[in-house]
Amino acid sequence: MKVFDASGQQLVALGIDTGTSNALSVLSQAVSVLSQGLSVVSNAASNALSVANAASNAASVVSQAMSVLSQAVSVAQAALSVRIDTQSQSISVLSQQVSALSQDVSARLVSVNNAISVVSNAVSVVSQAVSVASAQAASALSQALSVISVTDAALSAAINVVSNTLSNLTSIHNVLSNRVSANSAVAGSGSVTSNEASAISAQAASAINVVSNAVSVLSVIAESGVGQCRLSVKSTTSVTLQPYQGQLVWINGKAEKVPSGGVDLGTGGLTSATTYNLYAFMSAVSVMTLEATVSAHATDTAAGNIGVEIKSGDATRTLVGMVRLNAAVNFVNSATQRFLLNWFNRRGLHGANTFTATRTTTSAGYVEINTEIRVEFLTWATEAVGASCIGFGFQSTQGEFFATALAFDGTAQDAGGLATGPQANYYVMLNGGGVYSLAEGYHYATWFGAVSAGTGSYYGGAQQDQRCTVAISIRG
Questions:
Q1: pLDDT score for 168
Q2: Confidence of residue 421 (pLDDT cuts 50, 70, 90)
Q3: Which of 18, 254, 272, 353 is the most buried if burial means most Cβ atoms within 10 Å?
Q4: What is the pTM of this model?
Q5: Residue-number span of the structural domain to which 355 is assigned
Q6: Are residues 194 and 164 in the same domain?
């Protein structure tokens, strides 16, 4: 075998046998096959590249579609978010409405429960009122008859005024008629002069005014009677008389007006723990004034003032109420001290007091268990007083009794009740009371107790449904 350089010069001659030559031939063929394979691979790569480009284009299209889809999804999410917010707000509003409805239902339930409680209390009050009603009916009828008597006297006086006024108008009419008749009989001589006409006109106007006032007074008296006023405690140092359903009070034969600002009375000159009658009168300058005095009252029988309750022997003073000052020389009108009554327009008044702690006695005779339970009050002689004592207690010794009685002014009114438990210190209910007629003026109701042996305990404290209570019902 010969080997040449780049210029074609022979460099060396190599000896190659036939086997080597054959091998080289095979190698050449292999190279040729490899070349063909590379060509196929190149073509395949070219084709693959084309496919890749097509795939890239497809991927670009897909990417654009994904972008559009993403935007659509974003829009859908925003719309969904808005709907969710709207639904959330609706749910929130609905929740608030449900909450408000729940509160309203709760409030209504509370109102219903309160109403039931009020009805229950009202039934209890009505029950007590029924027991007092028969005695109070006679008082109310008596007072009504008194008012009717005064009204009748006022009506009679007013009718007399109207009658006299009509008589004057008749006289005026007759004068005018006679003058007109004379004028007809003798031409001109009977004519009414301008002065006469003016005088007659003035008399007629005055008469009409009198009739108008009389009718007004008649109307007021017919509608309201003689006492359009009520007393109340204004402060610890003052009580006041105020207009009530009108403003007229019958004083000394006349319907006088209670000032719109009321009439006040102070504690000056008054004494502690003293009961006074209150009278309204007109001062020298025609100003309504209140007087507090221990002087008794009486029913007037004088014409024009018949049936009016006055200061005994003095028709210029009309009774309007009763008042008592406490130990501190103060006006007070509380549940434990009902110290103000009205003569006119009376209302039902309630008083009550309780033991603040459990109280005891070992006395075999009735004694006041403790003064702290007293209810002090005033009453009119014409009114009945309802009173009761009720609560729980226990006896220290089994088989021995303990007793309860309502008392007025230190005197037991009835036996109340005897009680004993099945064992020592066993709680039992105690009660007593009724409807009573008491003298007019100041009283106090209290709790009396006694035992056959051992110690009787009468419950007091914060337990309202068990503690011992004294209660009274009056009118004023």
A1: 64
A2: confident
A3: 353
A4: 0.59
A5: 346-475
A6: yes
